[in-house]
Amino acid sequence: MRVAIAGAGAVGRSIAGELLENGHEVLLIDKAPTAISVERVPQAEWLLADACEITSLDEAALERCHVVIAATGDDKVNLVVSLLAKTEYGVPRVVARVNNPKNEWLFNESWGVDVAVSTPRLMSALVEEAVSVGDLVRLLRFSQGDANLVELTLPPESPLAGTRVGDVSWPEDTSLVTIIRGSRVLTPDTDDVLEAGDELLFVAAPAREEQLEELLSAR
Fold it and tell me: Which of 71, 122, 153, 191 has the largest count of CB atoms under 10 Å?
C-alpha cells in the first residue's frame, strides 16, 4: 500500500516508521527544509514541497496513493491537503490530524476527510475509558460514514452480563466489533457470552449511541 504523509514533523515521522515496519510504501512531504531528515526515516521517500500546491501533489504522484495522511500542525493545511487528495486525485482513504478541538466540525466529508483524529480528544477519551464503567466513551469519528468508534465497559450489574452475543437485540446502525477481556482481544461470535468487565468496542451511528448506552448500562 502506498501512503503519502503531509507533514514530516515528529507525528508524521512516527506514523511513517510504523507503516514502513508493516511493509507499506511511504512518502513524506514537507515544505520546510529543516523537516527533511532523511536519516531519521531512511526507508521512506522524501519530497521537499508544499502539500497545498497542485504541482507538488502532481510531483508526489498522489493519484497512485491508497491513503493520504494530513499530519501537519496546522489545521488549515490539513484541510486543504485532504480536500485536494479526495477531489483532485480520488485518494480512497484520507486521514487528517485535528490540532485544535474547536475545528473538529470542519473535518468531514465536505473537506474530503474520511477519518479525523483529534489528539486532545483521543487523550481525553482514553482517560475517560480508563475510569468509566457503564458509560459510553467516543474514541474516534469516521467522517464519511457518519459513525463513531465507541467503547463501554460492561458493569457487573448490567442485565446483559451472562447473555450470548447472538441473543442481544442490538440497536440499528451499530456493530459490535471487538470484546477486550483482560489481556485477550476477541472477535465477537454469536455464542460468546458477555461478562462483567468486558470492554466492548462498537462502530455506531451517533443517533444510536444513547440507545446503546441504555441497553448496556445498569440504568
Answer: 71
